[in-house]
Design goal:
This protein is mainly α and about 325 residues long. The protein contains eleven helices and no strands. The two termini are about 25 Å apart.
Length: about 325
């Protein structure tokens, strides 16, 4: 079952990557219906198919490139769902042999809700809270699969290293902080606020006067025909972006402190290497965040920023789980 979980983790990484690519290429409504595309299982490409599709959805002209971005994401997400269903069935079948049961069933529930979020992303026309929830759902699925893989993996932390065991609770706090920062990133992206601040480290001059918290984080927005390309004003988007910058600073300082402390205090190579790995991934993520601003959000960098955030969370989960696990 470990191999099945490992394949599912790799598939989940692909799904998260494709989700980021779909969102950043503005292809979230590339297919105006769900789960198919203009009533088909693939993308309409012939002149006859395109004509029928545009008659059925006159407000959404067929854009094959965007439609394929969306459908490829759905294909991989569907495959991941089948893999997770298989894991849940095996866990039920082998529960008397000590195979974890709760975690596989939890992952199955998450992926079912994630499918619903995928549908609502389309039917609610990219409502920001749904888009952000869909992003967090993808990260949650990946992280729970990784946690399940650790549960199934018979590794032992050499010597137990009691010198750093007490830092497990700080690792859990780090997971909470990083989750909040990822949510802020999702809120920034779903409200099309990634490019409103063009200078470092916080924003361009005058941002303090533009900062307004009143509406920027309302989860239920005014009813609109579509939320594509955003519905908030400039000041609200500046506020969202600035909060994401502040969150990045807080997250970076905390994780650097945590990883640095464990590296200094640990007596085993395992924890020292894990701390170094966490610092390396965090440094990469900071560099990508700066590059997003410096180079005006190039697609490859923006997608990488999403994926490295996922790897940063996986490294933090590995560290925290190992700190809590008995030798």
């Amino acid at each position: 079952m470990r191999r099945l979980v490992l394949v599912s983790i790799l598939l989940a990484i692909i799904v998260v990557t494709l989700g980021a690519y779909t969102r950043l290429t503005h292809a979230g409504l590339g297919c105006p219906d769900w789960p198919g595309c203009y009533g088909l299982l693939d993308v309409p490409e012939s002149s006859e198919q395109i004509s029928k599709a545009e008659q059925a959805f006159p407000d959404r002209p067929v854009e094959p490139e965007k439609a394929w971005n969306e459908m490829i994401h759905r294909y991989f997400a569907g495959a991941l769902g089948l893999f997770i269903l298989a894991i849940a069935i095996l866990s039920i079948k082998n529960r008397e042999q000590g195979t974890p049961l709760f975690l596989p069933l939890l992952i199955l529930c998450v992926v079912i809700f994630q499918a619903a979020l995928g549908m609502w992303t389309v039917t609610l026309m990219l409502m920001p809270v749904v888009v952000m929830g869909h992003l967090l759902g993808g990260f949650t699925t990946l992280c729970l699969l990784f946690l399940l893989y650790l549960r199934l993996n018979p590794y032992r932390v050499p010597g137990g290293d009691p010198a750093v065991r007490r830092y497990a609770r700080y690792g859990l706090l780090g997971v909470v902080i990083l989750t909040g920062q990822i949510a802020l990133g999702g809120w920034t992206s779903s409200n099309y606020a990634a490019l409103v601040c063009t200078e470092l480290p916080i924003c361009q001059a005058g941002w303090v006067e533009e900062f307004t918290i009143e509406v920027a984080f309302d989860l239920i927005p005014p009813e609109r025909d579509t939320y594509e390309h955003g519905h908030l004003g400039h000041y609200e988007r500046v506020t969202i972006h600035v909060m994401h910058r502040f969150g990045a600073i807080i997250t970076a300082i905390y994780l650097l402190w945590l990883a640095g402390t464990i590296f200094i205090k640990a007596n085993t190579r395992f924890f020292k290497n894990t701390a170094i790995g966490l610092i390396a991934v965090l440094t990469t993520q900071i560099a990508l965040g700066v590059s997003n601003i410096w180079f005006s959000l190039p697609l490859s960098v923006a997608v990488s920023h999403n994926i490295v955030a996922a790897f940063l969370m996986l490294m933090l989960i590995l560290l925290t789980y190992s700190l809590k696990r008995k030798a």
